[in-house]
Amino acid sequence: MTLPRLAVNLALLIGVALAVALFIAARVNARAQAFEAEFPPHGELLMVKGKRVQAYVMGDGPDIVLIHGASGNALDMLNALGADLAKTNRVIAFDRPGLGYSDALDDQSLAAQVDILAAAGKQLDLRNPLIVGQSYGGAVSLAWALHGPIKPRGLVLISAASMPWPAPLDITYRIADTRIGAALALPTAAALLPRSYIETAVASVFAPEAVPDNYATAIAAPLSIRLTTLRANMAQVNALRDQLVAMLPSYPALTLPIEMLHGT
Fold this sequence. Notes:
Blueprint: H1 3-38, E1 44-48, E2 51-58, E3 63-67, H2 74-85, E4 90-94, H3 110-123, E5 130-134, H4 136-147, E6 154-158, H5 171-176, H6 179-192, H7 195-206, H8 215-218, H9 227-247, E7 258-261
Parallel strand pairs: 3-4, 3-5, 5-6, 6-7
Antiparallel strand pairs: 1-2, 2-4
C-alpha cells in the first residue's frame, strides 16, 4: 500500500470515528433532555455545598428517611412506601448523589453521600430519623449510623448491601470500571439502550413475581440511562465492596435498633 493511499484510508477512518463520536454525543444529550422533559423533578431542589439534592417531603410526625438503591431514584422507595408511612410520619425521600435529580459528587463514597444527604436533611430540620435503606441504600444507611452527623433512632435495612460478597460483579460493571468502558461503553449505552431494556431489567429484578402495573413509568426509570447517572451508578457500585470490608469491623459498635428484611 502506497503512502498516499494509507493516508487517505487513515483520514477516512478518523472521519468515520469522529462522525460516530459526534452522533453518540448528540444522541446522549437529546435522550437526556427527552427523559427529563418526560420525567421532570417534582421534589424540593436543595442547594447543598454547591450541589443540587432533590428531596420529596410528605406527611407529618416523626421523621423517616428513605434511601433508594442502585440504578434508581427516590420515587422507587416513595412509590412503594411513601403514602402509607406519611399517614403517621414525616417522610423524606432523597435522590442519592448522581441519581434522579441530585448532582453527582467527585467523591462517590458512602461517607460523602451521607455527608451531603445529612446536610440536606439539616435544611429540612431533620431530627432523630428512622432511616430506611434498600439494597445499596442499606449500605448508605449503615454508613449514616456509623458516621453521620445526624444520629438516627433506628435503621430498617431492606435487602441491604451490608456484607462483602464473594463473587465478582456482573461483567457490565467490570467493563464500566475500565478506561475504555468508561470512555466508550457508557456513552454508547446512554445513546442506544432502548426503553425495552429497562422493562427487561425491571422484570428480572421482580422475577419470579410480576412487575406492578406501570412501575417503570411510576419511578421514572428512564432517568437511570442518562450518561451522568450511568457513570455515577457504575462508580458507586464498583467501589462498594471495599467500603463494606472497611465498615464491617465497626458493625458491633452499632447499638441502635436495626430491623433487617431479606428475601430470596
